[in-house]
Amino acid sequence: xxxxxxxxxxxxxxxxxxxxxxxxxxxxxxxxxxxxxxxxxxxxxxxxxxxxxxxxxxxxxxxxxxxxxxxxxxxxxxxxxxxxxxxxxxxxxxxxxxxxxxxxxxxxxxxxxxxxxxxxxxxxxxxxxxxxxxxxxxxxxxxxxxxxxxxxxxxxxxxxxxxxxxxxxxxxxxxxxxxxxxxxxxxxxxxxxxxxxxxxxxxxxxxxxxxxxxxxxxxxxxxxxxxxxxxxxxxxxxxxxxxxxxxxxxxxxxxxxxxxxxxxxxxxxxxxxxxxxxxxxxxxxxxxxxxxxxxxx
Length: 297
What we know:
By secondary structure, this protein is of the alpha/beta class. The protein has helices at about 25-35, 40-45, 50-55, 90-100, 120-135, 150-160, 175-180, 185-195, 215-230, 255-265, 285-295, and strands at about 40, 60-65, 105-110, 140, 165, 205-210, 230-235, 270-275.
């Protein structure tokens, strides 16, 4: 049995220390998720924004269970044996969205390589349920790569989400270490296919920094994303979830995130969120709203 390498967790700098808001709104979301037998990426991935987002009555719903068939070395979501998808889950998500009175819902999933379609049909059913029970809702989906299955991608796109998000996560060189079961070019191809198949649906992606990538590698990755048709981009700081995960190579200071945002905009991205606490779905509604205004001009 391969021995697990444990890495010490580096002390965070002042700009990564966050006050934790709590209160009635936070408890309302937490209890709703618990009673509905739902999962959120906020909880499973140990997102640093959970307190803020729950307190603002928003959450990113995690469908297809809470166990992933992959074991990315940066991610806190647990891997292991997966149960069959809950057929009632789409309606549970739709009801949670209605109860929270959300105008914008983000739906993501664990990766389910054990399912023939990677869970694409379940994604589509969830999109339909949320839209049916919440007229006027905007829906963003953050999807896995479906092992490059274009038919699975089409299944999700045919359900007409408002945004199609798929994270590139890191630079090409670091994939074998950080994402050993993923393929950099396959993710780019998925985005290219999405842009070609549904040009009216904006493609979004995200990258972490602080894993040991160089400035030149970041720029090359941004160019790859732009070429693949990505128009909305998020850039955030990698934070080590536990000692069993990859160590942080560097805490990137806020001015460098500002510079990355300016660079990405100059490269032609329509909307960019860049900062230490930025995550895939952080302020997703605001990014999409600004994208819509940009697209009209």
